[in-house]
Amino acid sequence: MATAALQPRRTIFARPTATTGWYSWLTTVDHKKIGIMYGVTAFVFFLLGGLEALAIRAQLAVPDGEVLNADVYNQFFTMHGITMIFLVVMPMGVALFNYFVPLMIGARDVAFPRLNALSYWIFLFGGIFIYSSFFLGGAPDGGWFGYAPLNRDLPSHGMDFYAVGLQVLGVASLAGAVNFIVTILNMRAPGMTLMRMPVFVWMTLVVSFLLLFAMPVIAVALFQLMFDRLFDTTFFNVAAGGDPLLWQHLFWLFGHPEVYILILPAMGIVSEVLPTFSRKPIFGYAAVVFAGAAIGFMGWGVWAHHMFAAGLGPVANSAFALSTMFIAVPTGVKIFNWIGTLWGGSLRFPTAMKFSIGFIAMFIIGGLSGVTHAIVPHDAQQTDTYYVVAHFHYVLFGGALFGIMSGLYYWWPKIFGHRLSEKLGSLNFWLWFIGFNLTFGPMHIVGLQGMPRRVYTYPDGMGWNLWNMMETVGAFIIALATLVFLFNVAVSRRKGRNEAGSDPWDARTLEWATSSPPPEYNFAEIPIVEHRDDFWHKKYFVGPGRTAEPVFSGGAVDHADDEETEPHIHMPSPSYFPLIAAFGMLVSAYAVIFALPAVAIGLLITTLGFFGWVFEPGTAE
Amino acid sequence: MATNDTALTPPAHEEHHTSTGLDNTKMAMWAFLGSECLFFGSLISTYLLYRSRAGSGPTPGEIYDIPFTSVSSFVLLMSSLTMVLALAAIQRGDERGLRTWLLATAFLGMTFIGGQVYEFTTFYEEGLALSKSPFGSAFFMATGFHGAHVTVGILMLLALVGMSMAGRLTVDGARKVELIGLYWHFVDIVWIVIFTVVYLVPTE
């Protein structure tokens, strides 16, 4: 009735309608497609960042290596850091937020579908922008932390790309954060109270708040750097009275919440995988949620532990040492809860579970070496050595990336309708696990022996040769594991193999209640939620002796895939304008560096994009 | 319910129901403004660190013209009043009144920006360039980003006027005006902080 009354009106603002074909990917506002695009893009950047790491390890395999010269080495280790943090781990988390948060809370999409598309396009263009620096006079070469005053003095355009590129990526993160906060708070299905939400959704919420408040701080620091480089302001010009410590404070006030932005999504994933494969609800749900929130708050009070060597004085150092040790408490709470979840469960060990357990083990090592940094005199010994490199790879690779891999194996059947091969998955895990420990384990030792990080070569006779060779071998094993993963993705696609129904793992949360892959509208009928782990409670009831007894077969599954009930659900129409607005930002970004007045063109394109955004009709006819 | 009963459930209803009862766009605006607090907080902190580092250039005490800035601050604060009147007008369904007060708000905003352009020019002529000293850099950056926010606000006010003339505020218009109003009031409040902390707190 309502739709029939409106006549199609062809205007320049008419909304695109394609939902299949390559064109549909450019205009889509579907959170699931956007999630896949985030994931694919982040994986491509993962390969690039991985190649940089391999080049670094090849250079360091033997003393006085000659694979890379110092200049290229600086660009590679800087880009490796920027890539893995901003273009891999963060967007991989966002990919999974995108795909699963609406499904897990029983929503049909995010609160602002077009804003979601805008976030993706800005992220993609930001990544391309930063990587194009390799062809435009050299990539950023001042480290991912870009310390002042080096950041303002480095001669190539690299640090311009750093300042502008990270700014662009920050806009994407900020828009995404706003979107997910509103989605999680406002779009929950009836009965999905906050304390019934899956832990993954909770962690998404905490991460979104961290992004919301951390991004503007780095934005100011990056503007200051950009202005210093372009307009000769004196924020970090020591000769003119600028203070390099300002950069460190602003950077780490962003940077420490950032590490929780990187790890909390993985903690959320693990909190979904472990209960499913233990056939138990998560142990101490409320404690896990509150520990996550506590990390979110306390994460703002520890930043100066990155600056113990900067000479802030004993009072500041002691305060930040204490807060840093204290933040290990909620993290420990989570680890005990995960172990408690495993305890007494009827465990299964598919690849997703292996990665989750690997996550716990590796993260404990990384967490403990992190606590050693909190001891200020100890930190003075470790600072700028490979010990620190070992530490943060154990939390970011052993933690975040293990968690993400676990999530990929766990949710793959939901996204693509088939499982990944468990045989290859197991090989993937063990190679990855062995390669990882071989690469980063010895770094503890060479670090304590005094091998400095960020230096492109080292002399013979320091006792570092064996360890460095082991690290390089390990890195290539990780590369092999990555190839196994890609091979797994390729062969598992073949039709008929590993066919997954809607609920292949006998899982607990709502995303498994709809078909695999889910229809565009996610649920034909918005679920009514009555319990935490509602889907499990629709499948089972607790019988005598606390055993799980099945409810009648199929009672829980949404009928989205039934032909005869194909529902007519109003979904947001695709739109060109997010892409256009984001493209304008890309133009502006290049203009800032190469032709300042042309920023006007970029701003004009972005403004036109938003103009169309506001004035395009609500639906395509 | 999962049948072909589209006619019974027009999509609009679905969109307006939220878990918290708060409107989605309003919640998003509040979240964004929360983020902006940290943005201006960082700019003002930088200013506080650098305000006494004037190098060979003029110091804050030498260069600020407090009476002038007081007047332009008053103009900006009055624009919050006209913004409230604009919202009251659309809530009554009075779109003519809405446009009048929106234009008044935009005009007051532009007057403020004009004052800032005049102030920046004067300061520059008196020897305070962006690159003169950390004080100059921090001052121009903090107040300049505020000015940019006011400018964006003016553009959004004018867009609202345009939308009203195109008849696009007849449905749900009060919400859209309130949304832009939230932003506008926030930018005004930030100016109160900047005027107090940047201009009024004496340096030496």
What is the compact description of this entry?
The complex is a heterodimer of chains A (621) and B (204). Chain A has 621 residues and is mainly α.
CATH architectural arrangement of chain A: Up-down Bundle
**SSE pattern of chain B:** HHHHHHH
What is the CATH homologous superfamily assignment of chain B? Cytochrome c oxidase, subunit III, four-helix bundle
CATH fold field value of chain B:
Four Helix Bundle (Hemerythrin (Met), subunit A)
State the low-pLDDT regions of chain A, or none: 1-10
Number of helices of chain A: 19
Structural class of chain A: mainly alpha
Which descriptor suits the 3D outline of chain B? Answer: elongated
Largest sheet of chain A: 2 strands, antiparallel
Describe this structure in words.
The complex is a heterodimer of chains A (621) and B (204). Chain A has 621 residues and is mainly alpha-helical. Chain A has a single domain (27-190, 197-572), classed as Up-down Bundle (Cytochrome C Oxidase, Chain A), CATH 1.20.210.10. Chain A has 19 helices and 2 strands. A two-stranded antiparallel ribbon of chain A has the order 1-2. In chain A, helix 7 (158-186) packs antiparallel against helix 18, helix 8 runs parallel beside helix 10 and helix 9 (244-278) packs parallel to helix 11 (314-342). Chain A starts with a helix and ends in a 6-residue tail after the last helix. Residues 1-10 of chain A have low confidence and may be disordered. Chain B is 75% helix and 0% strand. In chain B, helix 2 (24-50) runs antiparallel to helix 6, helix 4 (66-91) packs antiparallel against helix 5 (95-125) and helix 4 (66-91) runs antiparallel to helix 7. Chains A and B meet through helix 7 and helix 8 of A and helix 2 and helix 6 of B.
